[in-house]
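Re: [help] complex structure
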Amino acid sequence: MNTVTVQASKTYEVKIGSGLLDTIGQELSRIAKGKVMVITDETVAPLYLGRVYRSLTQAGFTVYTSSVPSGEGSKDLKYYVNLLELVAEKQLTRSDTLIALGGGVVGDLTGFVAASYLRGIRFVQIPTTLLAMVDSSVGGKTAVNLRAGKNLAGAFHQPSLVLCDPSLLDTLEEDVFRAGCAEVLKTAILFDRELFAHLREKTLNFDREWVITRCIQWKRDIVCADEFDRGQRQLLNLGHTVGHAIEALTEYDTPHGYAVAVGCCIIARAFSQDQEEIVDCFRAFGLPTDSYFSAKVLAGAALSDKKRQGDTITIVVPTAIGDCKLRSIPISELETVIKVGLTHE
Ligand code: GLY
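Output below.
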């Protein structure tokens, strides 16, 4: 088992190891007692909720559970309000705990409920997808979507503990696993040639515990340096300007990781000396590397995203693997950048 300690506005441990799911009761009892509400989704509940419930009750917790439908549609004000009402009805207090058992949607939704109920109560993340393990469960970004766009209502609220159990990935559908691989590749391109080399050699058979730990260490470093996303943390948006545009243009039918894969490849073709290696690696993981949308359409959708600041937009430029920088460009240049990165224009 590996432990990564995050020292942000709150200090907490991220534990990574197979079998950790069944230790949630013991782990939580080191930092909390009282009531717990486990929030999960309808895919994860039949697989893992029973084990979590058992471990928590054996450790003496009073446990409530709630399940939302699977998918991005649950990252919505309706589910957020329902959960707040439920938590209030069960009379949870500031000494009680919410647990997010699921992927990014459940983590972001539960985190925002925890951030706002009683102006903030403790929450724990048990990510069940690769994407949630390496990215969304660590760092305290919580949110729901609004009609105007993704993640537009939210808060920074750090978890008190994150338990990553790679054996949970065994039940993940292959396309969901691949989608998580896009964020893993993104981390390698941003910071880590050695990680990239391992992924290139092993592709989908990479060493899960080692890779997840390495990605979390990088995420920890970024979050500790820039918890509130004013500078360096924006590096984690590599591939996301175009990625978010593709998600919006396809009405969120394209999984986030697939859209990020395309975004990383377009920006790599536009800027990176290692563009061939990067695109080949995404391809080797079975991820898409190009978009059928035109540069004009992609730029238009990207510019309605919240990362635009007045007349400029900050993009992440992957000069080489392990060497990426933030660059602010005039919004009028974005279409040209995307055009260079597409293969069909
Ligand atoms: N998922 C990007 C971040 O945590 O900043």
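The chain has a mean pLDDT of 96.
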